[in-house]
Amino acid sequence: MDSAWLLLSLRIALIAALAGLIGRWQGETAGWAFGCMGLLLLLAFHYIYLARLQRWLKQPDSQTIPDAWGAWGNIYIELYRLLRREAKAREQILSDLEVFSQAAEASPDGLVILDADNHIVWCNRMAEQHLGLRGERDAGILVTNLIRLPRLAEFIAHPGEGEPLLFRPAERRGSVLSIEAIRFGKDRKLLISFDVSQVERADTIRRDFVANVSHELRTPLTVISGFLEHMLAEPAPEEARHQLGLVSEQVDRMLRLVDDLLILSRLEGESQMLREEEFDVRDLIYEVSGEARRLSAGRHTITCEVVPATLKGSRDELHSAFSNLVSNAVRYTPEGGRIVLYWEVKEGKGIYRVEDSGIGIAEEHIPRLTERFYRVDRGRSRESGGTGLGLSIVKHVLMRHQATLEISSVPGAGSTFSAVFPAWRVTLPQA
Ligand code: ADP
Fold first, then answer.
1. pLDDT for the residue numbered 228
2. Ligand 1 centroid vs 369 CA: distance in angstroms?
3. Which of 22, 98, 159, 408 has the fewest other C-beta atoms within 10 Å?
4. Are residues 74 and 140 in the same domain?
């Protein structure tokens, strides 16, 4: 039994004992009257403290805890301790929150917290500068109403997928921001903005240089190629024809290189907006497989396994990426080999897969294949007419479509290259 019950029992026992004594001396009625009075007083005493507690609970404050004795004193002491503990915990949480908010404010990157419906919850000072927001004024407003960027809504709907979004604020000429979206907590999103103006400027200079050099080289190379073609058409000694043939091969290779460099610099140029169109993927894959059969000239078995679907994106760019993957399969698969082009939709995502039974690629080369001019076997690449830029082009085209490239291979057994497209780019035919 705890002390409160003990005290109450003692008090009731005392009143009963006194009532018994009075009953014996003064008669039974006086005894009962005393007992009832005593119990009523005890009840009133507890009622007064209960009322005080009720009054205090309406505005609890450790400074105004009422004084009391007996069991009520214990209750108030416990309440006081509880309040102290709670106040301390609140102080600790507030100070932790302050540290976090100071750290977020000190961040050199812009941070914007969005709720599940993309309304602004909070943003730091850098985000205000970068994106022209005002934390207090804009809280609760839909972010897409404040940041005018064509693909922002789509981008936020799929946080963590694809490449960061580039943003050129109209009010800050020459400045370029990279925006990333991350999902956190329960359906919240964090937008992070970095200033990439310097990197972009250096990149533009490099890109322009490569594009200009390629462009300058293209004209003389075309002229030389024309001359060589003309000379090869004329009668000439066998030895001279052989040498002219070799020169012509090299000139063609240089032309292919220059063309690939021009394609790459065009793809890298942010100014080049993606031409979005919906097209039948099966048609594109049949077209690409036809080209591959011409390139293979009957040396391989080339088949397609495709499901009907439409894909949203640039058909021209994807044609170039898809045919690059198949032409690699043809070039790196010995005669008699098998090449299969798949198009399938898994969990909404569209997958274009090229499987070959070719020479394969050792594990250590796979992470570097999409680097410019990276080749496993330089001689073989050159012999088969490669420029070393094919997979870089594929990677760039896929990046522009928020798609990823997955490569798996077993040396001597074959390779599989898969381009995985986000679900929002893929539409299945209505059943
Ligand atoms: P290349 O013009 O040299 O083919 P790519 O960028 O297309 O350049 O490919 C880079 C390298 O990846 C190639 O040189 C080759 O070593 C390797 N590679 C690409 N596709 C295949 C494949 N299907 N099978 C084996 N190796 C491949």
1. 93
2. 7
3. 98
4. no
